[in-house]
Design goal:
single chain
């Protein structure tokens, strides 16, 4: 009697990787909403100026824990080539770095806090760019010996949109940081929204990579 495909060790390993990718996607999709709503419900007040600013709220553990979880998951990421594993480890380092080095505090920062905040900004920017690289380059790969399925072409379109979306959010965030801090636009918390959209794009990309949707028909 033939065994079902999912009963083989290799199939179990594939399922584990798919579940891992879906887990990363779920964290990305949920994080901005959990941070914002959790802070409003438990602590009151409105939105913070950025996702990173939730480090200084009651949602600190959720913020740090989510980034560390993403980092741990990324260290386990495997793809078709060595560059996939290297990219995963770099993204893991950037995620954990952004978690351990907080952004500027709500009060006046001293020299040490300023240095830490600058490091946070560097880690965060590199993390977003590495996530865009996953979407635009790694996820869109197709086995040269195979013709992309209709579902694969749809997934590639989603990856492309998500990757470009992340890059656009990063570019706009950098531009906004060059504006005077008393500019009227900051009343709308633009950095928060740009970071939130970038994280959601990241979550969608990994959710699709985990074949939660747009899965190839068996």
């Amino acid at each position: 009697m033939n065994m079902l495909p999912f009963s083989t060790p290799n199939s179990s390993l594939v399922l584990s990787f798919l579940d891992l990718r879906k887990a990363i996607g779920v964290i990305g999709l949920a994080l901005p909403f959990v941070l914002a709503l959790g802070k409003i419900i438990l602590e009151g007040g409105g939105l913070q100026s950025s996702i990173s600013s939730y480090y200084y709220t009651i949602m600190r553990d959720v913020f740090v824990g989510s980034l560390v979880a993403i980092g741990v998951f990324m260290t386990s990421y495997r793809g078709y080539e060595r560059i996939d594993a290297v990219a995963g480890k770099l993204a893991a380092a950037f995620a954990i770095g952004a978690a351990l080095f907080p952004t500027f505090p709500p009060t006046q920062a001293n020299a040490t806090q300023t240095l830490i905040a600058v490091l946070h900004g560097i880690f965060a920017a590199l993390l977003f760019l590495s996530l865009a690289f996953f979407s635009l380059a790694l996820f869109r790969k197709t086995n040269p010996s195979k013709t992309p399925t209709p579902q694969k072409r749809k997934r590639n379109f989603v990856y492309t949109v998500c990757g470009i979306g992340i890059v656009i959010c990063v570019v706009f965030a950098v531009f906004l940081n060059l504006l005077p801090k008393d500019s009227f636009i900051f009343r709308l918390n633009p950095i928060f929204w740009l970071e939130a959209f970038a994280i959601v794009f990241f979550g969608i990309s990994w959710f699709v990579k985990g074949e939660a949707i747009l899965k190839d028909e068996v």
